[in-house]
Request: fold
Amino acid sequence: MARSPAALQAIVAPAALAATATERPQGGGKSPAASPPRGRSALGSGPALNHERPQGGGKSPAASPPRGRSALGSGPALTHGPTPSGVTQRIVESITAAIVERRLMPGTKLAEQQIADIFKVSRTLVRQALNQLSRDRLVTLTPARGACVATPGVDEARQVFELRTMIESAMVRQLCEQITATQIAVLRAHLRSEREAVVRTDVPGRTRLLADFHVLLARQLGNEVLAQLLADLLSRSSLIALMYQSAHSASHSQDEHVGIVDALERRDADACARLMAGHLADVAHNLQLNPRTPALAAVLQPRG
Reply:
């Protein structure tokens, strides 16, 4: 099937433009209690957490990303025009966002020339971006086919969710011992955003926010290595979960998030761990359907 450059542009160009617009630093400091900006995603722009390294040797357990940046935004801000490495990272972030938001399905071909035309860069820079995505297990590179969105196998899917259960159950148990009232307020605000997205059937928005919840919990521990590891796992989970999520299943996940925050507020570590494990088991159970592969043109049409 022929892939239309215009169709592919519709799916990756909006994220590329958003990255360019938001990578300029804003005035003022960052609030430790602030949640990610409305409409932005902790999973919307690549796996690294370089900008969240603590300044001056300290770390803030409740710190959120700088204004206008995602929790997964990686690399330096492009304040003096795009450098080759900056452009490469922008391509990585745009494709990652499209995967996480379920706009790029497993197996979708990523033609180097199409992407180069979209970003107005050389194929060399595109190849660098695809190589990075391949190392992150989001893209598969084969001599015969070139690059395509990875298609995780059943064993990999099981292993990813088993690892997430081990990590996140222990994570919420530890967070329960040190969470503050301010952090609870941040989580409650995030839950309200989740609920609003579910009610208005904002599929990309609710997908981002439901995933962001898990990264937000990791960030509140102040452990950036854990947050980065979890972000990588969540990106791979999105590939595994690339079935269309029904409003019912999204609402059920959101309800489970509320239960986890309620247990955190009660400082009930056992309940936190049990609820997180149950939540991930439910998500994994709902992913046992075979993902369909829709027409590329239908998926890549401009939104809204």
User: Anything to note?
Assistant: The chain is about 60% helix and 5% strand. The first helix runs from residue 5 to 22.
